[in-house]
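[job 4417] fold queue: 2 targets
>>> target A
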Amino acid sequence: MATVSPSSTPNPDATKYDLDTTLPSTINFKSAEAAAGNSFAAAVFETPGVASIFGVKNFVTVTRMPGTEWADIHAAVEKAAAEHL
């Protein structure tokens, strides 16, 4: 059960999530279809407005579609990390 700690980035449409665990491999997905084989990323992509997910070592960066609210994405990343990492 991993936990996340969000922090802002220079890009207002991206948030970095520090993990208290290490990812088993680098992830880089630009669509839900591409993430289908990764349970964590697939769960995050279920949230409307997620544009891409990149992760390496102990962090994940999620980019949203412009204008999407962050609240649902934050909740989805927290839930997916707890359930799949």
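>>> target B
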Amino acid sequence: MKRRVLFYFCFFFVVIMAGLAGSSFFKIIDSRYYATTFPWAEDLGIFNQPFWLFTQTGELAPITIRGYNNILANHFSPIFFFLAPFYALQPGPQILLMMVIGGLCLSAVIIFLLANKILSKPFQALLIAAAYITYLPFVKVATLGFRMGLISVPFLSLGLLCYFSANFWAMMLALILAAFCKEEVPLILIGFSLLACYHRRRWYWRLTPALFGLFYFVLVVGFVMPWLNNSSIAGGAGFETYRYLGSSFREIAGSFVFSLPKIFEMLTREHVFVFLHQILIPLFYLPILGWPVLLVPLSQYLVISLASYTYYASISYWYFAPLLPFTFAAMIIALKNIEGWSGRANKRLAKILPTVIIIIILASNLMGAGFKEIKRGFDLKYNKKIAKLEEFIKLIPPEDSLLTHTTYIPYFSARSWIYLPSDWNKEPEYLLLEFSGDPFLLSREDFNRKFCKMLESNEYGLVKREGQLMLFKKGACSDGNQQILSEFLRRNR
């Protein structure tokens, strides 16, 4: 009876703690949104545009920001259809941010339940959940913005909980939903089958996750996404980083057989070890003692390590997010093992040692950058620079096309046609530009040349200006173009 009361008390405390952390994360990221300093702003627009169009028209329209046929051609994420009704409640980029933060904080509650299931000690589980929320890599992904891969974290966490609760069908449902989040996630299901082999579970535990995951991955990457992209090569967005391995499954398989030195070289690059250190050092390398669980997402380690883009293996980006629940599950198993090993020598030591270890890890987190980032959320003051943009938004009809810099993409992405500077040849109805704005995908020289040519041709005329930010409309009066051109040339001498 006492343990049950303690469990409910700790569970309630974890829910409150997760809610407070989520509020802080949202305040951090929302303040960046309002201050127009959002990280990877064009990516938020890439997701907001299809959500907005789908909820308005019911169609999977093209993503004009980066030229994908639709959101499933960008990343194959059928979870989009499950999220769309929530988006429709309050359409806009901020609801996408709330979805990610809510899902990540929900995973903290699931980690608590998982720890309590394995350790049968609610207070230790509470400390582990607190360590999870203040874990620097977790805080990083919670404040980076919306990504489909991040949506998989609560489902993978739930899959782990159901696995250790021996609930097969609930586990499969959670893992299928995780697979629907992003095209490489299904490969993690193979790891669940291997874990079931290690634990000598029944045949359907050993076969079903691997067969579903492998079949789904091959179907999506080998056939569905090439068809959606009108391409003959495997994959979709981001797959160019693996092109050195080949453009088909046969070529990739051949690389793993005949190009082992190259594979080994990619896996042993310095930044890969730095990344693994960043993941494990806050937990004092404890997850290694729970290595069977740590190896379940082996495919994700390969996705990160074999990428030719080195930033994939970095906690400053989001590619590692699916590793989070497995890292903590491995640590929980490690604590269970430590309790068993120490119990053989001293039963009293076995009772307190895991708790002491968790307290040390939590104290380290509380003194580290992760907790400081959370605390900063409560101290932030909003810089409503977005108010300046709202005046421009009112001047541009939603049905008209617009070209602008990456910084401003999210705020204008609720429209059918919005472009980056690299798509200047599309001749949109409006141009929203700055003298020193990000020319993303164009060189600075190309951007300057196109900007000058636009002013000289008088095809567009100035509609509104606020500091460096200028709105031009096709066919509008161009009396002020020469003055702007002179100022631009003076700035770029």
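[job 4417] complete. Note on B: The beta strands are 402-404, 418-419, 430-433, 460-466, 469-474.
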